[in-house]
Input
Amino acid sequence: MRFGYKAWMLSEELKVESGEFFAEEEFRRGIVGFFGEEKFKASFDIDENLPLEGFSVAGGADGLKISGGCESGLLYGAYAALFALKRGEAAEKISISQKPAVEKRILNHWDNGDGSVERGYSGGSLFWRDGKIGYDLPRLRDYARLLASVGINEISVNNVNVRLQTAKLLTDEGLKDLVKVAEVFRPFGIRLIISVHFDSPVWLGGLKTSDPADPKVADFWNAAAARVYGKIPDLAGFLVKADSEFQSGPNAFGHTQDVGANVIAKALKPHGGTLYWRCFIYNCLQDWRDTVTDRPKAAYDTFFPLDGKFDQNVILQVKHGPSDFQVREPNSPLLGALKNTREALEFQIAQEYTGQQKDLYAWAVQWEEILDAPFNEERTTRDLIGKEIEAIVAVSNTGDDENWCGHLMAQANLFAFGRLAYNPALTAKAVTEEWVSLTFGNAAEIHAPIAKMLLDSRHVYEKYNAPLGICWMVCIHHHYGPSPDGYEYMKWGTYHRADTKAIGVDRTRNGTSYTAQYQPFVRDLYENLQTCPQEMLLYFHRLPYDFKLKDGRTMIQYIYDTHFEGVEGVENFITVWESLKGKIPDEAYTHVRERLAMQLENAKEWRDVINSYFYRKCGIPDEKGRTVYV
Amino acid sequence: MRFGYKAWMLSEELKVESGEFFAEEEFRRGIVGFFGEEKFKASFDIDENLPLEGFSVAGGADGLKISGGCESGLLYGAYAALFALKRGEAAEKISISQKPAVEKRILNHWDNGDGSVERGYSGGSLFWRDGKIGYDLPRLRDYARLLASVGINEISVNNVNVRLQTAKLLTDEGLKDLVKVAEVFRPFGIRLIISVHFDSPVWLGGLKTSDPADPKVADFWNAAAARVYGKIPDLAGFLVKADSEFQSGPNAFGHTQDVGANVIAKALKPHGGTLYWRCFIYNCLQDWRDTVTDRPKAAYDTFFPLDGKFDQNVILQVKHGPSDFQVREPNSPLLGALKNTREALEFQIAQEYTGQQKDLYAWAVQWEEILDAPFNEERTTRDLIGKEIEAIVAVSNTGDDENWCGHLMAQANLFAFGRLAYNPALTAKAVTEEWVSLTFGNAAEIHAPIAKMLLDSRHVYEKYNAPLGICWMVCIHHHYGPSPDGYEYMKWGTYHRADTKAIGVDRTRNGTSYTAQYQPFVRDLYENLQTCPQEMLLYFHRLPYDFKLKDGRTMIQYIYDTHFEGVEGVENFITVWESLKGKIPDEAYTHVRERLAMQLENAKEWRDVINSYFYRKCGIPDEKGRTVYV
Output
């Protein structure tokens, strides 16, 4: 079952007869790949009454009938049919009808020109090597199929931290190879996005300034867009990280974000392109002594006053939380708050702070929590999707490792992202079970324990990590492993200010007033110690170690308890996994077993460091007398 | 006075008539460089009654008479005469007679093949670029003069952490350029040392093992030595960092250090070469939970049992302290403890933990403290030199910055090292004043305040850093700036274990028994809280924050006080320096003023982080009510 180890979707090139539609060819290829012969037949048609990328699949006596609202819809229908057949559904009884919740379902690659991947834990870049893009087009074709099979339809191909090598994508030289990459992804309904550097007018255009108010700068962007669209007419657009973590931006020239965004957006407009503008802006040179500035407030403070000032082809790309893809954060108050500005919701599939694809971590569970969280008294965040939120984006977890994702089980995250972006109403349980059965088969004795491991993994990981939403107790720079004070005296705006009595930042109206950025219902929910979700207590409140939780335990005892439980959870994963030996392919068994050993080490390190750290701060021992290193 | 800015010694190539001895030419060049014309004359002769590298300089009616025990001694005599004349001594009255305390006065360069310098703060390598050595031979000639002028007579040219590029120095290809470098240094009496990788037999020899017991490995080293000495017959020897910080070594093959060293030493022996074998061996993968292992014990534990087992051409190279060039450490108990093994004392001129040539730090003051420290009831460490200690080594602070040392004032450290290695009886005050007057001239109004700044700098720096010898409260990896818990949960064996009540590791007989490695007199001195030098209290003892010091202050109050005083010390440096404006060359004034501004920032950061850290640990406020950030 080597195929299953590589990914859920067929990754060898099987030659099959072509049909009227590309979807037909993909279907035949899938059937032969999955079943060894053309066991199932299907008919294909475009039905303009269906939503644009929607589809229907209907079983019948003469085979399956697959309809799509367009070629992409048809392709999604073909893959949906393949998945259903692979999961053992009877062909005659298949009846599926779907349409995407948002038009734009996007993967951002943080790939550098030298072949490295920022926050990549799956080998090198699939796109770049030695400054050139597209060095392995056949593998990119496999990758395109993998992404299309879960409904992803736009990808950025270079890191948002753009350096000179990838900045050159805007030049004739850079475009030469990018055109070939676009050709690979085009039949799969996937359009490219280019991450561009705000200083491109200086870097590439020979100008003395990147000031967006300078007409020469506008000319540069107009010419650059024309050049790119001349070669890749269906390019989705540009992506910009500006005024963020040492990247240049409009602030440097005394302008607000809209001024910087609109000059580029206007260049894209004639070509139908979208400008994705990231909202991850904060003071990364904060003085730790400054207790007034509160980093989580930054994105809202920057962008909320600009609502309505962005051109219509600008989409603001907002990270799901106000910090940075931490194990536990509240949702960003910016999501849904902008009434006259388009927004994208940004996730991270790469496990930067969540185990770096050594530790098991099913993002789908956290994403479900995020979507379930209230926007106001009437609506959840999920209810914003397809309305205020027009696009769903994620930072990719893929690389040139044979299994694409470093950890075989991390494939579940790529799979879940695509499925949830297409249909956010799906449960974490449903998409996780779907991936498990496509990868390991449908036998309950295999399927159920693996799915349970994945579904438990988010909470097990959270238990042994930074407690109660405190964030950032992580080793600096590389972000793997515990370092409770690692960021405490640094410039990144990430402080917990633990002393002998208490820990946390008061973000209520009595403190930094971060909570005021939320809708009143949510603000009150988080401000009130009785209603604030327990797992986010330390995100919003500064609390003494002997604070009583609802179950009567002190906070410090809860911290000790959860950290012991976290390690037990990983030990339990290992027991479960070992029970699967011989039932799943050896290669997959051994690979995951090795990663679980690494995870156990990591979990123990977190448990012991966090417990010791708190004991050394407050001097209160574990009531149960377990080993806390003093 | 551009010359003064570049260094104390002439660095332009002035063409002068050559004489019978190279020293004559150097003398004439110096006179013309210093005084613009051949204002002073001298006669030169080799006097075999003088010690080998000793010399005498005598003023007289017909000019100076300079004698040397050999060509090197003559050269040192010429430089001594130049220095005296430059400092304004009357030629007729000059009368100097000196001889070196140790035969080997060595600089280790931690330069990498790619041109970077490990722990280098003065630009790139003077030796290496793009994998090749000797890219700028004229500048190396200036450098050789600089080193010879203070009596340095051996240098290693590549990092002790040897990588493939510099490992290749042992090959014909690598030697081709090294020969040219040797030619540059030879007339200045400076011999080269090559740092070699213990795995060279595998890397270069195509062998399957580096096991020193394998006859093929011995053959490899014999051939390598023969090859090198065939090209550079006066090579001083090889330098090895083995079994240390992920470098390979004899331990990997189940052998003790002597077995690894002797196989290489035997290869060097027929050629008269010395093997320098570093003693910086410890467990760099320690579990922080392990309170039995105590890193400072490692070198003694490893090498003391091997006393007498090393070949006679092996010199063990021992860092001055048992930690790693920290701001405050006791001396290594290994120094002087080996009765049948040759030893070198290793200093670091590079300011890795002492301000990285941004902060002012006169090592001479610390070195004097080190030399003054007792070895036993009768002898100081200085008394070991020339007896148990046969060589003095330092890690260089030089690079290709125009001023050689990054910070102009850091030149004083290179100068002081050479002078003290030649004559350890010199005081820090004497060598510092010597450098100041050679660099800034002899006017008291300039000379005195600069010398005082330098002489105060070590204690000012110590005041705002990790207190009372606690060590390692420094940002991880790069080692600049404070991070009190940065190394606390890591694998490097560097823990202070601060909790709400106390801090430090008990290294007495009640604790790890590290003190037992010292001679009984010194052991008792450090074990006893009454006699342990105050500034090393936390190196040897675990103490409560309210521990009473001799002056009646609590330890925590002492920590607060010194940290405020440290910043005041830097502010005072700035006041003093600003009073020199217009009196010293603008270029030097501005350069040092900029560095002092950086130092003030750093000092404030240390003050506030350390004070906050301790306040947050113990909750005891500053008695004087100054600002401690909570």
User: Anything to note?
Assistant: Chain A touches chain B through 26 residues (CB under 8 Å). The two ends of chain A are 49 Å apart (CA to CA).
